[in-house]
Amino acid sequence: MRSSNHLIGLLNFLTFLLSIPILGGGIWLSSRANNTDCLKFLQWPLIVIGVSIMVISLAGFAGACYRNTFLMWLYLFVMFFIIAALIGFIIFAYAVTDKGSGRPVTNRGYLDYYLQDYSGWLEERVASDSYWSKISSCIRDSKICAKMGVTINGVPETADMFYQRKLSPIQSGCCKPPTDCGFTYVNETAWTYGGGVVYNTDCNNWSNDQQQLCYSCNSCKAGVLGSLRKSWRKVSVINIIVLIILVIVYVIGCAAFRNNRRIDNDEPYGEARMTKAQPSRIHL
Fold first, then answer.
1. Which parts of the chain span the membrane according to its record (predicted)?
2. How big, in percent rounded to 5, are the helix, strand and coil portions of the chain?
3. Using CA atoms, how far apart are residues 179 and 212, in angstroms rounded to an integer?
4. For labelling alongside 204, which of 56, 147, 210, 246 has CA 20 to 30 A away?
């Protein structure tokens, strides 16, 4: 009984530790939402799952230490639904970030982003006018475009140097005009019309006004989606690893809990019993 309780206590401690990377991933997404991604509701399910695992693991640990069967049963019962919720969240995260990526541009180090490359629930939510006004305002307030300026020995970078930079999706989509507009580089956030004829509405939406830039462009919306996709894929890899370990720990915990119940009820384990209707006769 004591060794079984020790095993359950150890498993609860492990699940407590596993809740840390899940909670950390949610907090990281929250910091990204505040600073760059600006989509501030997607991280909360992950934070709730991480906190729930942490709390229920402490309950299970206390149940193992004090031999409280109810707390250990509650731990296994709730953990089942938490694992199911984590599976659902991972599937949801991959589903809403399934499509879309940046397009490579000839002689450029960065990618260009186009809204038509994305689809689904997340794209519809980001592209909606009511929601986009909040996101674009957040991007503007984060000053991500103002921070793009680079100087080398006090001299601003040249066009050729800028063209080889690895820009983030939001920097590429929101802080400069799309490459196919044919604009001429002045500095990182100032461009002049080059006279090219293209069928891209973002070309008319670009403004050298530092409060406008390409915040009303579809490329900016696509850049936000591209940034979200990268962030979520990183967190999802960690979540999948944690999920696999959680399932293994849960299965072992169920086996240990059943063994506890068997010992509490004084049930035999691995022992075959035979009953005889009559005792054997001894023949002389």
1. 7-29, 41-66, 73-96, 237-257
2. 60, 5, 35
3. 18
4. 147
Q: Which pLDDT tens digit goes with each residue over 70-94?
A: 777 888 888 899 899 889 988 988 8
Residue with tokens 């591209």: 226
Nearest of 112, 144, 129 to residue 38 by alpha carbon:
144
Q: Are strands 155-156 and 184-187 parallel, antiparallel or unpaired?
A: unpaired
Long-range contacts of 114-117 (CB under 8 A, 24+ apart): 114/178, 114/218, 114/219, 114/222, 115/218, 115/219, 115/221, 115/222, 115/225, 116/218, 117/222
Closest-CA residue to 173 (of 218, 207, 212, 131) = 218
User: What is the average per-residue pLDDT within 232-244?
Assistant: 85
Q: What percent of the chain has pLDDT over 90?
A: 24
Other C-beta atoms within 10 Å of 30: how many? 17
Tell me which residue of 7, 250, 218, 236 sits closest to 100, measured CA to CA.
218
3-state SS class at 188: coil
